[in-house]
Amino acid sequence: MELAVYSIDGNKTAKTIDLNDSIFGIEPNDHAIYLDVKQYLANQRQGTHATKQRNEVKGSTRKLRRQKGTGAARIGDIKSPLLRGGGRAFGKKPRDYSFKVNKKVKSLARMSALAYKVKDNNILVLEDFSFETPKTKQYIELLERFNMLDKKSLLVIPEADKNIMLSSRNLSKARVAIASDINTYQILNAQHLVFVESSLKEVENTLLKL
Fold it and tell me: How far apart are CA 113 and CA 196, in angstroms?
């Protein structure tokens, strides 16, 4: 597929770029996307939640009433999960939520997400650029030229650029990612996917070598 290349001024240039069909033109695999996004979200969980079971609650172990003859249900000590202030039955304990997803499945998921963006015409290619100094106003003006200020956007750059990253940092709906580090969740979470021209080659190299 061929896309026009735009300048950061918002004007279409005479250049075009061909998207690699083996990445952007595949038939999307929804299950691969599901697994990759599920793993990403699971990895964000700290897993530090903790509750106290009956053996960890402070209190007497004296039996509250005799077993039989009262007409009431049998009960043990004051730390029973049935009583207020007692331990928690089957409560949460610290755990690791992460799980393994094969590299080829993750690669397929990212390519599938990119293919969906192409089908929805939500990919924009910009000429290579940089800012002389970190300035949020410059990044806002860039987004306004392409009507993306109020929408979620992901700018993909070939390598770390401190000025671009700092310029976008205070914008809640704008994200910047390095081409070799983009993941399926970031791609799908963005309404508009913006590639700097040279970053497309980095994406191809990253995905095709897996």
Answer: 18
- The pTM score is 0.84
- Nearest C-alpha neighbor of 51 from the set 85, 94, 84: 94
Strands 192-196 and 153-157: parallel
What pLDDT digit, counting tens, does each position of 61-75 carry?
999 999 999 999 999
In order of their start, the domains of the chain are 2-45+98-208 (3.40.1370.10), 49-96 (no CATH)
For the chain, how many residues are written? 210
Burial class (CB in 10 A: 0-12, 13-18, 19+), 167: buried
Collapse the DSSP code of 150 into the 3-class scheme (helix H, G, I; strand E, B; otherwise coil) and give the result.
coil
Which tokens in the block code for residue 1? 């597929």
